[in-house]
Amino acid sequence: MDSPKELRAAIVENRAQLQAALHGAAACWETKPAAEGDEEPWSPQQIVEHMIGSEWYFTNHIAQACGAPALEPPAVDVSSPAAAAATATRVGAICDNILRHVSDADMLKTRELRRFGEQSVAWMLNTIDSHTRDHLQQLKAASGD
User: Fold this and answer.
1) In what helix (H) or strand (E) does residue 15 lie, and over which residues does it extend?
2) What is the pTM of this model?
3) Position 115 in a domain
4) In a domain, 34, yes or no
5) Phi and psi dihedrals of 119, rounded to 5?
6) For position 38, what pLDDT does the model report?
7) Which domain holds residue 18?
8) Does some domain include residue 133?
9) Region 43-65: what's the mean pLDDT?
10) Which of 3, 57, 89, 134 is 20 to 30 A from 98 in CA distance terms?
11) Within-domain flag for 35
12) What does the H/E/C string look like for 65-130?
């Protein structure tokens, strides 16, 4: 199992990759790519909104699993790539203020997640990392990279 420190480093790296990918998304920000299969594709704007919201969602549950109060939902502005970059930075800082306190002992603490059932802090940290990496690939594909 990765340590909290290793997972935080991966999450920070994913955020840096998101910032870089936002530059390539400007020309097609609100454009959905052609559908492949049964799922409706998302525009880069929708992907980034989901990525930011998901990181906050899991971080909020990590905070509560570790005994902290629920976080105040952030305002998410993805009206443009520049606004999304600013929002990702601001929400990332909010998440960092929680995630930097997660210890090895916290990794086994659990919380009931409506959609995912009872999950550990370790699972949530790993999910932030893997989920963001998956959507980074989706963002790059939707942006034509």
Assistant:
1) helix 4-24
2) 0.94
3) yes
4) no
5) -135, 150
6) 83
7) 4-27+42-140
8) yes
9) 97
10) 134
11) no
12) HCCCCCCCCCCCCCCCHHHHHHHHHHHHHHHHHHHCCCCHHHHHCEEEECCCEEEEHHHHHHHHHH
For 92, phi and psi rounded to 5 degrees?
Answer: -60, -40
Half-sphere exposure of 87 (CA within 13 A, CB side): 22
Let me know: does 119 contact 113? Beta carbons within 8 Å: yes
d(CA 124, CA 106): 11
User: What is the per-residue pLDDT across 124-138, written as a single tens digit (0 to 9) for each?
Assistant: 999 999 999 999 999
**Number of domains observed in the structure of the chain:** 1
Whole-number Å distance between alpha carbons of 131 and 39: 17
Choose among 141, 51, 136, 57: nearest CA to 87: 51
pLDDT digits (tens, 9 = 90+) for 75-125: 999 999 999 999 999 999 999 999 999 999 999 999 999 999 999 999 999
| Residue whose tokens read 């990765």 | 2
CB atoms closer than 10 angstroms to residue 49: 17
CATH number at residue 70: 1.20.120.450
- Per-residue pLDDT band at 55 (split at 50, 70, 90): very high
